[in-house]
Amino acid sequence: MVIIDVKDFKKSFGSKVVHRGINLKVNKGECLGLVGGSGCGKSVILRSLIGLEKPTSGEIFIHGQNIAPLNETQLVDVRKKVAYVFQGGALFDSMTVEENLAYPLKEHTTLTLEQIKRKITDTLNGFGLQGSEKLMPASLSGGMQKRVGLARAIIMDPEVVLYDEPTAGLDPFNTKKIQEKILELKAKGVTSILVTHDMPTAFAVCDRMALILNGVIAQEGTTEQLKLDHKGAMKNFVTGEAW
Ligand SMILES: Nc1ncnc2c1ncn2[C@@H]1O[C@H](COP(=O)(O)OP(=O)(O)O)[C@@H](O)[C@H]1O
Ligand SMILES: [Mg+2]
Q1: Ligand 1 centre from 8 Cα, in Å?
Q2: Closest ligand to residue 37's CA
Q3: Which among 47, 49, 60, 57 has a CA at the least distance from the CA of 12?
């Protein structure tokens, strides 16, 4: 079953054309790796999938619903199903870890305070963050901040998770933790897109990968196919030969 279907997505900022017609499909429970040079438009695609950006033209279907024309009120329901893990974690600096995680639950669920506390403790434990409830984001390492950001994104049990460079700048321990979490969510049937420059992580968790070059998908294939391909655009990207 196709969960995400991006059709002829075009996006320009003023006279700057970024996407010239992107087509992507992601099936239920699949993780699609989206790679490409800095500034090629990976984050804009993810933001468009939750309606934070509007395409200049084209369609974005999520569960068969074209979300491109929806207004902010209509997008609330989409954002409950689709979680976006921001590049920097995007935690609220003035709130504790617990308050950061409680925020979506208080906004969008009818859980009691006790249920919320239990869910937060369970989620933090699952990320190796036990005991960090009362800490402020600024006192956490970069790796912990990213894990808290991911914990907050998935605490609503989303059907789709969009990861924007979740392992950028992380040490091997934190990178491994994030990989494990992505695989665990995938095993539960979560559909995802992983934007990354971290090729070992992409090869470890993605079922398929797509490379953006000059505003279009230059190459797409299963991770296995791409591993064996020695002359395509993806190979050049991975080895740095195209740049
Ligand atoms: N709000 C914006 N206004 C103008 N240009 C933007 C905006 N957001 C992104 N861009 C431009 O679009 C291009 C793609 O950005 P982005 O999706 O962030 O790239 P990346 O692939 O590195 O994630 C970049 O050239 C960027 O400068
Ligand atoms: Mg980006």
Answers
A1: 18
A2: 1
A3: 57
Return phi, psi of residue 69, to 5°. -85, 0
What percent of the chain shows pLDDT beyond 90?
79
| Banded pLDDT at 237 (limits 50, 70, 90) | confident
47-98 pLDDT per residue, tens: 999 999 999 999 999 999 999 999 999 999 999 899 998 876 688 999 999 9
Q: Note if the pTM is more than 0.90.
A: yes
Question: 158: which 2 tokens?
Answer: 């989303």
* Closest-approaching ligand to the CA atom of 168: 2
Q: Measuring CA to CA, which residue among 205, 203, 191, 207 is closest to residue 235?
A: 203
Structural domains of the chain in order of their starting residue, each with its CATH number: 29-54+69-239 (3.40.50.300)
- Give φ, ψ of 62 to 5 degrees: -125, 120
| Inter-residue contact 216 to 231 (CB < 8 Å) | no
Hey, what are 155's tokens? 């605490």
What is the torsion angle, in degrees rounded to the nearest 10, for the CA atoms of residue 107, residue 112, residue 114 and residue 118? -60
If one compares 6 and 80, the residue with the highest pLDDT of the two is 6
Q: Which of 9, 10, 16, 44 to mutate to test the pocket of ligand 1 (most atoms within 8 A of CB)?
A: 44
What secondary structure letter does DSSP report for 159?
A: S
